[in-house]
Amino acid sequence: MAKTNVKSSKAYMASLKSLDTEENIDLMFYRPIGYGWACLAKKCGIGPNAITVASIFLGIGAGVMFYFSDIYLNIIGMILLIWANSFDSADGQLARMTGQYSRIGRILDGLSGDLWFLSIYIAICLREIVTSTFFEQHHWAIWVLALVAGICHTKQAAMADYYRQFHLYFLKGESGSELERAFTLKRKLTTLNWKHDFWQKLSLSFYTNYTLQQEATAPAMQRLRSELADRYPDGKIPVQFREAFRKASLPLMKYTNALTFNWRSIILFVSLFLEMPWIYFACEVTLFNFLLGWMIYRHEKICRYFAMELKEGKFPAE
């Protein structure tokens, strides 16, 4: 199928989360390729989780290639990382096409990106120790920089995903969002047994902690969610409120997109071409952290405003 036909087909459009939350590079490149992989996987009876696992091996392979100070090997690594991300796009598109949603799939999807970048971070550190006079003499400096960058990266990705899911909640409703509450996850944890449900309980424990950290970073959002639950216990939030919040949240989607894979990988590739991969770590700690802080500030301000509007009765139940 030609790319132009893919982009205009109803099946392709249904495989996207929403045009509100899609990044332009994804729409132009990764989503059409991901849709092709998803269609092929569907025909072959391959599930979303299998594609996610394949992306993990591709991403780790990319990290290995970035260890070498050889631009041709680095380009192979870039191709592998792009391939891995096309699979990361495909697994979600396939899940939406086939209805194969699962919490394990969501956890595995998040874990895949972490494993890609863990291998990339280690490769860059080992490379800088070998090739850089400064880092050869001060091994600790590159490892500390990488550790701080990694912590920042994890926080940036988590909050970008959180705000995107919150936007989807008001755009598509609960069924169109993967937004969860920590207290419901904790309740689910109590029903699992370490002896009989070890892997399920382990993965859910990590996911619960992940969700708790997201909620702790966005207290105004939690107050708004509580206000909505108290005011509309049946979950029937008025269309007027949904549309008003979506309109206010939409301009912030460019920040969530800037903190995802595409711009991060572009800076990584540029730093490799410059033969100074440490620049990537520096951008994580400075540029991306600035965007994260601004995004949190703006979104919390929006949530405080709408919580106040609810308290004043501006959005009566329908």
Q: Can you give a write-up of this model?
A:
The chain has 318 residues and is an all-alpha fold. Helix content is 79%, strand content 0%. It has 16 helices and no strands. The protein has helices at residues 3-8, 10-14, 24-44, 48-66, 71-98, 103-131, 133-137, 139-172, 182-190, 198-217, 219-231, 239-249, 253-258, 261-273, 278-285, 287-311. The protein is globular.
Summarize the helices and strands and which ones pair or pack.
Blueprint: H1 3-8, H2 10-14, H3 24-44, H4 48-66, H5 71-98, H6 103-131, H7 133-137, H8 139-172, H9 182-190, H10 198-217, H11 219-231, H12 239-249, H13 253-258, H14 261-273, H15 278-285, H16 287-311
Helix pairs in contact: 3-5, 4-5, 4-6, 5-14, 6-8, 8-12, 8-15, 8-16, 9-10, 11-16, 14-15, 15-16
Q: How much is the average pLDDT?
A: 90
Q: Percent helix among the residues?
A: over 70%
In DSSP terms, counting alpha (H) and pi (I) runs of 4 or more, how many helices? 16
Cα end-to-end separation:
45 Å
Radius of gyration: 21 Å
Category from helices, strands and their pairing:
mainly alpha
Q: In total, how many beta strands?
A: 0
Strand and helix order: HHHHHHHHHHHHHHHH
Main sheet attributes: strand count, strand direction, barrel closure: none
How much strand content do the residues show? under 5%
Low-confidence stretches: none
Principal-axes shape call = globular
